[in-house]
Design brief:
The complex is a heterodimer of chains A (480) and B (213). Chain A contains 21 helices and no strands. By secondary structure, chain A is mainly α. Chain A has one domain. The mean pLDDT of chain A is 92. Chain B has 213 residues and is an all-alpha fold. Chain B is built from seven helices and no strands. Chain B starts with a helix and ends in a 13-residue tail after the last helix. The model of chain B has no long low-confidence stretch (mean pLDDT 80). Classes of the chains: A mainly alpha (480), B mainly alpha (213).
Chain lengths: 480, 213
């Protein structure tokens, strides 16, 4: 089984979808490609292929620890997409379907990139391929969101290229031959020029951190997630951010090999805590339930950064959190998309009583909210618990306290908005719009499936998963 | 060879200041495209024997940064029928002062950085830093979308200057991908500018405020 299939299948499907004439039948390309993608991903997951050490691409342990989660998320979202595009049948979906499939292929490529330059190219390509997804709705607000996404994301991507060049120069200065695979860079280790490694780390952290949505580079997120459909939000929050996070992990391993791991960990911890704090404060202030999800995503990116800063146990926990966050956040985005369409507005000032208009979506939304705020026995509870344990074991008492306070503040913020929307008597305006929205199985089952997966992850995450995360940690930290 | 190269980098740095000081958009675009052409010539000057790879990079840079993108920007400018940056957030004189100060700081900073012997005395690193800073000032300090796109391009030019340090060591794939992606990125930004114009009838990004917290 060739891991390049994960890249080629979605790209061919994207091409076919762009050429396909029927607007109503075209969305079926999404689940068709996603099923093949997930099957291949899980075959490779169970029987991992051997990757040549100097290979530029490959299904290595790091890719194995993250890629199946993205594939699973996309599979569920693909089925949701069929129903979503049927409801939005009046809009041509040629570019939307093509771009969505292209994003899947490029995400798979980015997760498998073992070369600094290739990794950058795929991240850049994902950024650009996601643009048509954001302005699918064609409203002025969607254009505004797209503009900000491009300007902030473009700057982030430019800085990560500069960081890649700086890391290349660090290698060249240390006598390297210009081999930019992560394996070669790590084997150069202390031979890398220290000042250039530090410059590269800062630039790459800011650059890929922008794509992840770490504060203070998160400003594009509320706009983009607020205006994009729930489906796109789920893919961006669960897929694109995962690629950026693995990029940071791979770069971190090089910086660690160069002997500057302690500095890298301190910056990751600081930026992670700052992201959580900013997100928690904005969660307490926002009145828009889709922007709320964006801030919640910023918060969880902060949790990932903190996990990544805590050594081997922390990174394993962070990889666990990538899974639990992707799946749970996906359920939230999809159910929020349903509520948004039935309510006609994303603001808690204009929407209430959605528990009676869309009872199923509201139930999923509330459950998802509890899951994402770490209610046991859902996945996020266990992954965050592991991060807290790793933090305490490494002696980060103060950071742990801040972490828990931020979680609490975020919980207040989320419950405030969610219950304002779900409870109470529906407004007349919402009733009128809500009549046009029918809670079919097509829009209820996908978020339910994601939520069940999150629950399953918490209750009985199979040992093979834990082994995969441990293998990735071994790849990232060769010497204990 | 190094002297010629430094002359060109000096010219590019002068164009940075010119673009910071110009209030008319055609001048800004002209300065930017001139910088693109200068950047395109540099790799040919740097190599002792010019092979097809270097020629390709040079041609692609000149065509992309010097011709195609400026032409697209001019079209976008005509479509929006604006040609002036009237109320910049950072005025023209302050941006010039910032740019000049930044250039001096870049020269000073380069003294501290460890460089390979063959890059000692070259203006590539300070030139790259000064150009990056110019791009940032334009992106942050201007309100018209076209000026911001120009700023983004000048930022990219700075990265390209830095990339020239690695042109021998970096494989073709990286170079090709870099050029392609950056160009495509601007294409798409151009399309977006076009669409924003249709939606707002003005390219003033200050009007993009519906999504404010």
């Amino acid at each position: 089984m060739n891991s390049l299939l994960l890249i080629i299948v979605p790209q061919i499907a994207a091409l076919l979808a762009m050429l396909w004439p029927g607007n109503h039948t075209r969305p079926w390309f999404l689940p068709a490609a996603a099923i093949v993608h997930t099957l291949v991903a899980f075959c490779l997951f169970i029987v991992p292929p051997t990757v040549a050490p100097d290979a530029w691409m490959g299904f290595d342990p790091v890719a194995r620890a993250v890629l199946p989660a993205v594939s699973l998320l996309f599979l569920v979202c693909a089925f949701y997409g069929v129903t979503y595009l049927k409801v939005r049948g009046e809009r041509p979906n040629r570019i939307f379907v093509g771009a969505l499939l292209a994003v899947l292929g490029l995400l798979s490529a980015g997760l498998q990139a073992r070369h600094l330059g290739l990794l950058w190219i795929f991240t850049e390509a994902v950024t650009l391929a996601a643009v048509p997804l954001l302005h699918f709705n064609g409203t002025p607000r969607a254009f505004e969101a797209t503009w900000k996404y491009l300007l902030v994301g473009g700057t982030g991507i430019a800085l990560s290229l500069l960081g890649s060049l700086a890391l290349g120069y660090a290698s060249l200065h240390g006598g390297g031959t210009g081999d930019l695979t992560f394996v070669a860079l790590m084997s150069q280790g202390a031979g890398l020029s220290r000042p250039w490694v530090l410059i590269a780390w800062v630039l790459l952290l800011v650059g890929y951190g922008t794509k992840m949505g770490l504060a203070p580079m998160h400003t594009w997120k509320p706009e983009a997630y607020g205006e994009a459909s729930g489906l796109v939000g789920a893919i961006l929050a669960g897929g694109v951010t995962s690629v950026a996070f693995t990029a940071i992990l791979r770069v971190r391993s090089v910086v660690g090999a160069a002997g500057e791991g302690a500095i890298a960990d301190r910056t990751l911890l600081a930026i992670g805590l700052f992201s959580m704090l900013v997100a928690a404060l904005f969660l307490l202030g926002t009145r828009d339930f889709k922007r709320m999800l964006a801030y919640s995503s910023v918060e969880h990116m902060g949790i990932l950064a903190i996990g990544a800063s805590l050594g081997r146990a922390g990174v394993a926990a962070a990889l666990f959190h990538v899974w639990s966050n992707s799946l749970t956040k996906g359920a939230l985005f999809l159910s929020a998309g349903n509520i948004r369409r039935a309510a006609g507005s994303p603001s808690m000032d204009e929407v209430r009583g959605m528990g009676t208009i869309t009872p199923h979506s509201a139930a999923l939304f509330v459950t998802g909210m509890f899951a994402v705020t770490a209610l046991p026995p859902f996945g996020p509870f266990f992954s965050e618990l592991k991060i807290v344990r790793a933090a305490l074991e490494t002696g980060h008492g103060l950071a742990t306290a801040m972490f828990l306070v931020c979680l609490l503040l975020a919980f207040f913020g989320l419950t405030r908005v969610v219950f304002a929307i779900v409870d109470g008597r529906p407004r007349n305006a919402s009733k009128a719009v809500g009549k046009n929205f029918v809670e079919t199985a097509g829009v209820i089952l996908p978020p339910l499936a994601l939520l069940s997966l999150s629950l399953a992850l918490g209750l009985f995450a199979p040992t093979v998963l834990h082994d995969a995360w441990a293998a990735a940690v071994t790849q990232l930290f060769p010497q204990p | 060879m190094n002297a010629n190269l430094n002359l060109l980098i000096g010219l590019a740095m002068g164009l940075n200041l010119l673009s910071l000081g110009s209030s008319r958009l055609p001048n800004l675009i002209r300065a930017m495209s001139a910088q693109g052409v200068i950047l395109g010539v540099m790799p040919v000057l740097m190599e002792h024997e010019v092979d097809w790879r270097v020629t390709l990079i040079a041609l692609a840079t000149i065509a992309g940064k010097g011709l195609i993108i400026p032409a697209l920007l001019r079209r976008a400018m005509r479509a929006a029928s604006i040609d002036r940056e009237l109320e910049p957030l950072i005025g023209f004189v302050p941006s010039l002062l910032l740019g000049a100060g930044g250039t001096i700081a870049a020269l000073a900073l380069t003294q501290v950085l460890p460089l390979l012997p063959e890059h000692e005395g070259s203006l590539l690193v300070p030139g790259a830093l000064a150009t990056l800073l110019t791009g940032f000032i334009l992106m942050v300090g201007r309100t018209k979308a076209i000026s911001q796109v120009c700023g983004y391009l000048i930022l990219e030019n700075g990265i390209y200057l830095f990339g020239l340090l690695l042109i021998k060591a970096m494989p073709l794939l990286v170079e090709g991908g870099v050029l392609l992606d950056l160009t495509v990125g601007v294409f798409i930004i151009g399309i977006i500018v076009d669409r924003i114009q249709r939606a707002f009838d003005s390219l003033d990004t200050r009007k993009l405020t519906a999504l404010r917290e």
